[in-house]
Amino acid sequence: MNFHETSQDRAAKPALPSLVGATRKELAALLARHGVPEREIRMRVGQLWHWLYFQGATHFDPMLNVGKPLRAELAAHYSLARPEVVAEQISQDGTRKWLLRFAPVNANDKGAEIECVYIPESDRGTLCISSQVGCTLTCSFCHTGTQKLVRNLTAAEIVGQIVVARERLGDFPGLTPPEGGLLPRGDSRLITNVVFMGMGEPLFNFENVRDSVGVLADGDGLSVSKRRITVSTAGVVPQIERLGAEAGSMLAISLHAICDELRDKLVPLNKKYPLKELLAACRAYPGASNARRITFEYVMLKGVNDSPAEARELVRLLKSIPAKINLIPFNPWPGTKYECSDWEKIEAFSEIVFNAGYASPVRTPRGRDILAACGQLKSATEKMRARARMMAEG
Ligand code: SAH
Prior knowledge:
This protein is α/β, with parallel strands linked by helices. It has 2 domains: 17-77, DNA polymerase, domain 1, CATH 1.10.150; 84-388, TIM Barrel. 33% of the residues lie in helices and 16% in strands. The chain has 11 helices and 12 strands. The protein has a 10-stranded mixed beta sheet, with helices on both faces. It has a two-stranded antiparallel sheet with strand order 6-7. Helix 5 packs parallel to helix 6 (237-247) and helix 6 runs parallel beside helix 8 (275-283). Mean pLDDT is 87; it is low at 1-14 and 383-394.
Protein backbone atom coordinates (compact mmCIF):
# COMPACT_ATOMS: atom_id res chain seq x y z
CA MET A 1 0.00 0.00 0.00
CA ASN A 2 1.16 3.46 -0.77
CA PHE A 3 -0.16 6.56 0.95
CA HIS A 4 1.30 9.96 0.43
CA GLU A 5 0.43 13.57 0.00
CA THR A 6 2.62 15.22 -2.62
CA SER A 7 3.76 18.79 -2.26
CA GLN A 8 2.87 19.46 -5.89
CA ASP A 9 -0.67 18.35 -5.13
CA ARG A 10 -0.86 20.83 -2.33
CA ALA A 11 -0.23 23.77 -4.67
CA ALA A 12 -2.15 26.99 -4.06
CA LYS A 13 -5.80 27.07 -5.08
CA PRO A 14 -6.45 28.45 -8.55
CA ALA A 15 -7.71 31.98 -8.39
CA LEU A 16 -9.19 31.89 -11.89
CA PRO A 17 -12.16 29.74 -12.88
CA SER A 18 -11.08 26.58 -14.68
CA LEU A 19 -12.20 25.53 -18.14
CA VAL A 20 -11.70 21.87 -17.28
CA GLY A 21 -15.07 20.16 -17.18
CA ALA A 22 -16.90 22.78 -19.27
CA THR A 23 -19.56 21.66 -21.76
CA ARG A 24 -19.49 22.79 -25.41
CA LYS A 25 -22.38 25.11 -24.64
CA GLU A 26 -20.49 26.74 -21.77
CA LEU A 27 -17.37 27.17 -23.88
CA ALA A 28 -19.41 28.74 -26.69
CA ALA A 29 -21.02 31.18 -24.26
CA LEU A 30 -17.73 32.26 -22.72
CA LEU A 31 -16.03 32.69 -26.10
CA ALA A 32 -18.91 34.95 -27.15
CA ARG A 33 -18.44 36.97 -23.95
CA HIS A 34 -14.79 37.44 -24.84
CA GLY A 35 -15.62 38.84 -28.24
CA VAL A 36 -15.09 35.84 -30.52
CA PRO A 37 -17.27 36.47 -33.58
CA GLU A 38 -20.32 34.27 -33.97
CA ARG A 39 -19.06 32.64 -37.19
CA GLU A 40 -15.84 31.47 -35.47
CA ILE A 41 -17.34 30.08 -32.29
CA ARG A 42 -17.97 26.52 -33.42
CA MET A 43 -14.45 26.15 -34.73
CA ARG A 44 -12.90 27.67 -31.60
CA VAL A 45 -14.95 25.45 -29.32
CA GLY A 46 -13.76 22.44 -31.33
CA GLN A 47 -10.13 23.50 -30.93
CA LEU A 48 -10.40 24.12 -27.21
CA TRP A 49 -12.28 20.86 -26.80
CA HIS A 50 -9.46 18.93 -28.41
CA TRP A 51 -6.87 20.51 -26.12
CA LEU A 52 -8.94 20.13 -22.98
CA TYR A 53 -10.27 16.62 -23.42
CA PHE A 54 -8.21 14.84 -26.04
CA GLN A 55 -4.75 16.18 -25.24
CA GLY A 56 -5.37 16.92 -21.57
CA ALA A 57 -3.55 20.26 -21.88
CA THR A 58 -2.43 21.86 -18.63
CA HIS A 59 -1.35 25.20 -20.20
CA PHE A 60 -2.71 27.50 -22.87
CA ASP A 61 0.71 27.98 -24.54
CA PRO A 62 0.71 24.78 -26.64
CA MET A 63 -2.69 25.64 -28.14
CA LEU A 64 -1.07 27.15 -31.20
CA ASN A 65 -4.12 26.80 -33.46
CA VAL A 66 -6.19 28.87 -31.03
CA GLY A 67 -4.27 32.04 -32.03
CA LYS A 68 -2.10 34.17 -29.79
CA PRO A 69 -4.53 36.99 -28.86
CA LEU A 70 -7.33 34.62 -27.90
CA ARG A 71 -4.91 32.40 -25.98
CA ALA A 72 -3.72 35.43 -24.03
CA GLU A 73 -7.29 36.54 -23.37
CA LEU A 74 -8.24 33.08 -22.10
CA ALA A 75 -5.13 32.76 -19.97
CA ALA A 76 -5.90 36.12 -18.35
CA HIS A 77 -9.37 34.99 -17.28
CA TYR A 78 -9.28 31.22 -16.90
CA SER A 79 -7.11 28.39 -15.69
CA LEU A 80 -6.87 24.74 -16.71
CA ALA A 81 -6.76 23.60 -13.08
CA ARG A 82 -8.12 20.19 -12.17
CA PRO A 83 -9.53 19.21 -8.81
CA GLU A 84 -6.67 19.05 -6.30
CA VAL A 85 -5.30 15.57 -5.59
CA VAL A 86 -5.06 15.53 -1.80
CA ALA A 87 -3.97 11.90 -1.57
CA GLU A 88 -3.27 9.03 -3.92
CA GLN A 89 -3.25 5.41 -2.82
CA ILE A 90 -2.24 2.42 -4.89
CA SER A 91 -3.46 -1.02 -3.87
CA GLN A 92 -1.46 -4.21 -4.27
CA ASP A 93 -3.98 -5.27 -6.91
CA GLY A 94 -3.39 -2.11 -8.98
CA THR A 95 -6.55 -0.32 -7.85
CA ARG A 96 -5.92 3.37 -7.31
CA LYS A 97 -7.86 5.73 -5.15
CA TRP A 98 -7.66 9.49 -5.17
CA LEU A 99 -9.00 11.87 -2.58
CA LEU A 100 -9.93 14.99 -4.54
CA ARG A 101 -10.67 18.46 -3.30
CA PHE A 102 -12.67 20.92 -5.36
CA ALA A 103 -12.08 24.65 -5.43
CA PRO A 104 -14.34 26.43 -2.91
CA VAL A 105 -17.66 27.55 -4.42
CA ASN A 106 -18.20 30.38 -1.88
CA ALA A 107 -16.65 31.97 1.20
CA ASN A 108 -18.09 29.34 3.57
CA ASP A 109 -16.96 26.40 1.48
CA LYS A 110 -13.59 24.97 2.53
CA GLY A 111 -13.39 22.88 -0.63
CA ALA A 112 -15.53 19.77 -0.82
CA GLU A 113 -13.75 16.41 -0.92
CA ILE A 114 -14.73 13.23 -2.68
CA GLU A 115 -13.08 10.00 -3.70
CA CYS A 116 -12.64 8.43 -7.04
CA VAL A 117 -11.35 4.91 -7.77
CA TYR A 118 -9.63 3.32 -10.79
CA ILE A 119 -9.97 -0.44 -11.18
CA PRO A 120 -7.77 -2.05 -13.86
CA GLU A 121 -8.87 -5.41 -15.27
CA SER A 122 -7.46 -7.49 -18.11
CA ASP A 123 -9.99 -6.30 -20.68
CA ARG A 124 -10.94 -2.87 -19.35
CA GLY A 125 -10.15 -0.10 -16.92
CA THR A 126 -13.06 1.28 -14.92
CA LEU A 127 -13.22 4.62 -13.21
CA CYS A 128 -15.74 4.86 -10.38
CA ILE A 129 -16.83 8.46 -9.88
CA SER A 130 -18.96 10.42 -7.43
CA SER A 131 -21.94 12.66 -8.19
CA GLN A 132 -22.52 14.23 -4.78
CA VAL A 133 -20.48 15.09 -1.71
CA GLY A 134 -22.06 12.80 0.87
CA CYS A 135 -25.51 11.30 0.32
CA THR A 136 -29.11 11.71 1.51
CA LEU A 137 -30.19 8.10 1.01
CA THR A 138 -29.23 6.47 4.35
CA CYS A 139 -29.06 2.93 2.93
CA SER A 140 -28.47 0.90 6.08
CA PHE A 141 -25.51 -1.14 4.75
CA CYS A 142 -23.65 1.77 3.11
CA HIS A 143 -20.93 3.75 4.84
CA THR A 144 -21.47 6.84 2.69
CA GLY A 145 -25.08 6.79 3.90
CA THR A 146 -23.88 7.63 7.40
CA GLN A 147 -22.51 10.95 6.17
CA LYS A 148 -24.63 14.01 5.61
CA LEU A 149 -25.08 15.42 2.13
CA VAL A 150 -22.84 18.40 1.66
CA ARG A 151 -23.78 19.32 -1.89
CA ASN A 152 -24.29 18.24 -5.48
CA LEU A 153 -21.24 18.23 -7.70
CA THR A 154 -21.35 20.43 -10.79
CA ALA A 155 -21.03 18.82 -14.23
CA ALA A 156 -17.50 20.24 -14.41
CA GLU A 157 -16.57 18.65 -11.08
CA ILE A 158 -17.90 15.29 -12.26
CA VAL A 159 -15.90 15.53 -15.50
CA GLY A 160 -12.87 16.81 -13.53
CA GLN A 161 -12.60 13.39 -11.89
CA ILE A 162 -11.80 11.60 -15.15
CA VAL A 163 -9.47 14.37 -16.30
CA VAL A 164 -7.46 14.06 -13.08
CA ALA A 165 -7.49 10.28 -13.25
CA ARG A 166 -6.26 10.26 -16.88
CA GLU A 167 -3.53 12.69 -15.96
CA ARG A 168 -2.37 10.65 -12.96
CA LEU A 169 -2.41 7.44 -15.00
CA GLY A 170 -0.54 8.97 -17.95
CA ASP A 171 -3.63 8.33 -20.06
CA PHE A 172 -3.49 11.50 -22.19
CA PRO A 173 -1.45 11.23 -25.40
CA GLY A 174 0.15 14.65 -25.08
CA LEU A 175 1.28 14.35 -21.47
CA THR A 176 4.20 12.55 -19.90
CA PRO A 177 2.89 10.25 -17.20
CA PRO A 178 3.76 11.35 -13.67
CA GLU A 179 6.15 9.26 -11.65
CA GLY A 180 4.42 5.96 -10.95
CA GLY A 181 1.96 6.56 -13.80
CA LEU A 182 1.28 3.76 -16.23
CA LEU A 183 2.12 4.05 -19.90
CA PRO A 184 -0.78 4.12 -22.35
CA ARG A 185 -1.15 0.85 -24.24
CA GLY A 186 -0.93 1.82 -27.90
CA ASP A 187 -4.04 3.60 -29.03
CA SER A 188 -6.35 2.29 -26.37
CA ARG A 189 -6.95 4.28 -23.24
CA LEU A 190 -6.47 2.94 -19.72
CA ILE A 191 -9.86 4.26 -18.65
CA THR A 192 -12.37 2.54 -20.93
CA ASN A 193 -15.42 2.49 -18.63
CA VAL A 194 -16.98 4.92 -16.19
CA VAL A 195 -19.44 4.00 -13.45
CA PHE A 196 -21.35 6.46 -11.25
CA MET A 197 -20.97 4.20 -8.23
CA GLY A 198 -18.96 6.44 -5.94
CA MET A 199 -20.54 8.79 -3.45
CA GLY A 200 -24.02 10.16 -3.89
CA GLU A 201 -27.24 9.42 -5.73
CA PRO A 202 -26.72 10.47 -9.37
CA LEU A 203 -30.43 10.85 -10.12
CA PHE A 204 -30.78 13.43 -7.33
CA ASN A 205 -28.33 15.52 -9.35
CA PHE A 206 -29.87 14.79 -12.71
CA GLU A 207 -28.94 17.78 -14.89
CA ASN A 208 -25.30 17.79 -13.86
CA VAL A 209 -24.98 14.04 -14.31
CA ARG A 210 -26.64 14.25 -17.73
CA ASP A 211 -24.37 17.09 -18.85
CA SER A 212 -21.27 15.32 -17.58
CA VAL A 213 -22.24 12.17 -19.53
CA GLY A 214 -22.43 14.37 -22.64
CA VAL A 215 -18.85 15.58 -22.10
CA LEU A 216 -17.51 12.12 -21.20
CA ALA A 217 -19.06 10.51 -24.27
CA ASP A 218 -18.05 13.17 -26.82
CA GLY A 219 -16.06 11.37 -29.50
CA ASP A 220 -13.71 14.32 -30.14
CA GLY A 221 -12.62 14.45 -26.52
CA LEU A 222 -12.76 11.99 -23.65
CA SER A 223 -14.51 9.46 -25.92
CA VAL A 224 -15.96 7.06 -23.36
CA SER A 225 -18.79 5.43 -25.29
CA LYS A 226 -22.25 5.68 -23.71
CA ARG A 227 -22.39 1.90 -23.66
CA ARG A 228 -19.45 2.05 -21.28
CA ILE A 229 -20.90 4.68 -18.97
CA THR A 230 -23.16 3.28 -16.26
CA VAL A 231 -25.26 5.37 -13.91
CA SER A 232 -26.20 3.47 -10.75
CA THR A 233 -29.30 4.48 -8.83
CA ALA A 234 -31.02 3.35 -5.66
CA GLY A 235 -34.25 3.79 -7.65
CA VAL A 236 -35.30 7.40 -8.21
CA VAL A 237 -38.16 6.24 -10.42
CA PRO A 238 -39.30 9.59 -11.91
CA GLN A 239 -35.81 10.26 -13.32
CA ILE A 240 -35.12 6.87 -14.84
CA GLU A 241 -36.89 7.48 -18.14
CA ARG A 242 -35.17 10.86 -18.47
CA LEU A 243 -31.78 9.28 -17.91
CA GLY A 244 -32.30 7.00 -20.88
CA ALA A 245 -33.80 9.70 -23.08
CA GLU A 246 -31.48 12.61 -22.24
CA ALA A 247 -28.18 11.00 -21.18
CA GLY A 248 -28.42 7.66 -23.00
CA SER A 249 -26.11 5.94 -20.54
CA MET A 250 -26.38 2.40 -19.26
CA LEU A 251 -28.46 1.91 -16.13
CA ALA A 252 -27.69 0.01 -12.94
CA ILE A 253 -30.19 -0.49 -10.14
CA SER A 254 -29.16 -1.11 -6.54
CA LEU A 255 -31.82 -3.71 -5.89
CA HIS A 256 -30.49 -5.70 -2.89
CA ALA A 257 -33.89 -7.16 -1.89
CA ILE A 258 -36.75 -8.96 -3.58
CA CYS A 259 -39.63 -7.73 -1.39
CA ASP A 260 -40.68 -4.27 -0.25
CA GLU A 261 -40.58 -5.14 3.43
CA LEU A 262 -36.84 -5.83 3.38
CA ARG A 263 -35.99 -3.25 0.73
CA ASP A 264 -37.68 -0.54 2.83
CA LYS A 265 -35.07 -1.31 5.51
CA LEU A 266 -32.02 -1.64 3.28
CA VAL A 267 -32.79 1.15 0.81
CA PRO A 268 -35.27 3.51 2.54
CA LEU A 269 -35.96 5.25 -0.79
CA ASN A 270 -38.04 2.15 -1.52
CA LYS A 271 -40.79 3.53 0.73
CA LYS A 272 -41.26 6.30 -1.79
CA TYR A 273 -40.73 4.24 -4.95
CA PRO A 274 -41.59 0.59 -4.23
CA LEU A 275 -40.34 -2.39 -6.23
CA LYS A 276 -43.30 -2.60 -8.56
CA GLU A 277 -42.83 0.97 -9.78
CA LEU A 278 -39.07 0.57 -9.96
CA LEU A 279 -39.28 -2.56 -12.11
CA ALA A 280 -41.90 -0.95 -14.36
CA ALA A 281 -39.50 1.96 -14.94
CA CYS A 282 -36.77 -0.54 -15.81
CA ARG A 283 -39.02 -2.31 -18.31
CA ALA A 284 -39.63 1.04 -19.99
CA TYR A 285 -35.98 2.20 -19.93
CA PRO A 286 -35.22 3.77 -23.30
CA GLY A 287 -32.60 1.83 -25.21
CA ALA A 288 -32.55 -1.27 -23.02
CA SER A 289 -32.17 -4.45 -25.06
CA ASN A 290 -30.42 -7.79 -24.84
CA ALA A 291 -27.32 -6.04 -26.12
CA ARG A 292 -27.76 -3.18 -23.64
CA ARG A 293 -28.84 -4.81 -20.44
CA ILE A 294 -29.75 -3.17 -17.17
CA THR A 295 -27.46 -4.21 -14.32
CA PHE A 296 -29.08 -5.21 -11.04
CA GLU A 297 -26.74 -4.92 -8.11
CA TYR A 298 -27.36 -7.22 -5.18
CA VAL A 299 -25.23 -6.91 -2.06
CA MET A 300 -24.80 -10.22 -0.22
CA LEU A 301 -25.72 -9.73 3.44
CA LYS A 302 -25.39 -12.72 5.75
CA GLY A 303 -28.75 -14.07 6.88
CA VAL A 304 -30.55 -11.01 5.50
CA ASN A 305 -31.08 -11.47 1.75
CA ASP A 306 -28.94 -14.45 0.76
CA SER A 307 -31.25 -17.51 0.79
CA PRO A 308 -31.83 -19.78 -2.24
CA ALA A 309 -35.53 -18.84 -2.15
CA GLU A 310 -34.56 -15.20 -2.57
CA ALA A 311 -32.31 -16.08 -5.50
CA ARG A 312 -35.24 -17.82 -7.20
CA GLU A 313 -37.53 -14.89 -6.52
CA LEU A 314 -34.94 -12.50 -7.92
CA VAL A 315 -34.88 -14.43 -11.18
CA ARG A 316 -38.68 -14.41 -11.32
CA LEU A 317 -38.88 -10.66 -10.69
CA LEU A 318 -36.46 -9.83 -13.49
CA LYS A 319 -38.05 -12.16 -16.03
CA SER A 320 -39.26 -9.66 -18.62
CA ILE A 321 -36.34 -7.23 -18.26
CA PRO A 322 -33.10 -7.42 -20.27
CA ALA A 323 -30.96 -7.78 -17.16
CA LYS A 324 -27.52 -8.58 -15.81
CA ILE A 325 -27.14 -9.50 -12.17
CA ASN A 326 -24.15 -8.32 -10.22
CA LEU A 327 -23.66 -9.97 -6.84
CA ILE A 328 -21.56 -7.81 -4.54
CA PRO A 329 -20.00 -9.30 -1.42
CA PHE A 330 -20.79 -6.88 1.39
CA ASN A 331 -17.83 -4.69 2.33
CA PRO A 332 -17.90 -4.19 6.08
CA TRP A 333 -17.11 -0.88 7.75
CA PRO A 334 -16.57 0.10 11.39
CA GLY A 335 -19.83 0.04 13.32
CA THR A 336 -21.97 -1.78 10.75
CA LYS A 337 -24.45 -4.39 11.97
CA TYR A 338 -24.18 -6.44 8.77
CA GLU A 339 -21.79 -9.19 7.77
CA CYS A 340 -20.88 -10.52 4.36
CA SER A 341 -22.57 -13.79 3.40
CA ASP A 342 -20.47 -16.95 3.66
CA TRP A 343 -18.77 -17.94 0.45
CA GLU A 344 -20.86 -21.12 0.06
CA LYS A 345 -24.03 -19.06 0.34
CA ILE A 346 -22.84 -16.67 -2.33
CA GLU A 347 -21.92 -19.58 -4.59
CA ALA A 348 -25.29 -21.27 -4.11
CA PHE A 349 -27.10 -17.99 -4.81
CA SER A 350 -24.96 -17.35 -7.86
CA GLU A 351 -25.61 -20.84 -9.20
CA ILE A 352 -29.38 -20.38 -9.10
CA VAL A 353 -29.03 -17.11 -10.95
CA PHE A 354 -26.60 -18.68 -13.44
CA ASN A 355 -28.88 -21.65 -14.11
CA ALA A 356 -31.67 -19.22 -14.91
CA GLY A 357 -29.55 -17.94 -17.79
CA TYR A 358 -27.74 -14.97 -16.26
CA ALA A 359 -24.03 -14.62 -16.27
CA SER A 360 -23.79 -13.69 -12.61
CA PRO A 361 -20.31 -12.49 -11.89
CA VAL A 362 -19.64 -12.05 -8.23
CA ARG A 363 -17.88 -8.74 -8.05
CA THR A 364 -14.47 -9.43 -6.57
CA PRO A 365 -13.77 -6.82 -3.96
CA ARG A 366 -10.95 -4.67 -5.29
CA GLY A 367 -8.65 -2.35 -3.47
CA ARG A 368 -9.73 -3.58 -0.03
CA ASP A 369 -6.31 -2.74 1.40
CA ILE A 370 -6.89 0.91 0.53
CA LEU A 371 -10.58 0.91 1.51
CA ALA A 372 -11.61 1.59 -2.05
CA ALA A 373 -14.47 -0.91 -2.22
CA CYS A 374 -18.14 0.02 -2.71
CA GLY A 375 -19.69 1.85 0.17
CA GLN A 376 -16.36 2.52 1.86
CA LEU A 377 -15.54 5.81 0.25
CA LYS A 378 -14.46 8.99 1.95
CA SER A 379 -14.83 8.51 5.70
CA ALA A 380 -12.29 5.75 5.70
CA THR A 381 -9.78 7.93 3.89
CA GLU A 382 -10.27 10.66 6.41
CA LYS A 383 -9.36 8.24 9.16
CA MET A 384 -6.28 7.19 7.23
CA ARG A 385 -5.23 10.78 6.73
CA ALA A 386 -5.50 11.36 10.45
CA ARG A 387 -3.40 8.25 11.03
CA ALA A 388 -0.85 9.28 8.38
CA ARG A 389 -0.61 12.73 9.97
CA MET A 390 -0.09 11.22 13.40
CA MET A 391 2.66 8.97 12.04
CA ALA A 392 4.32 11.86 10.24
CA GLU A 393 4.26 13.92 13.42
CA GLY A 394 5.78 10.97 15.31
N1 SAH B 1 -26.49 5.92 -4.95
C1 SAH B 1 -26.19 5.06 -6.06
C2 SAH B 1 -24.71 4.90 -6.38
C3 SAH B 1 -23.72 4.74 -5.25
S1 SAH B 1 -23.49 3.19 -4.46
C4 SAH B 1 -26.83 3.72 -5.84
O1 SAH B 1 -27.41 3.49 -4.79
O2 SAH B 1 -26.81 2.90 -6.76
C5 SAH B 1 -22.78 2.04 -5.56
C6 SAH B 1 -23.15 0.59 -5.21
O3 SAH B 1 -22.44 0.13 -4.03
C7 SAH B 1 -24.63 0.44 -4.87
O4 SAH B 1 -25.15 -0.72 -5.47
C8 SAH B 1 -24.59 0.30 -3.36
O5 SAH B 1 -25.77 -0.27 -2.89
C9 SAH B 1 -23.36 -0.53 -3.16
N2 SAH B 1 -22.84 -0.52 -1.78
C10 SAH B 1 -22.94 0.46 -0.87
N3 SAH B 1 -22.36 0.10 0.29
C11 SAH B 1 -21.86 -1.13 0.11
C12 SAH B 1 -21.10 -2.02 0.94
N4 SAH B 1 -20.75 -1.69 2.18
N5 SAH B 1 -20.75 -3.20 0.42
C13 SAH B 1 -21.07 -3.52 -0.86
N6 SAH B 1 -21.75 -2.72 -1.68
C14 SAH B 1 -22.15 -1.54 -1.22
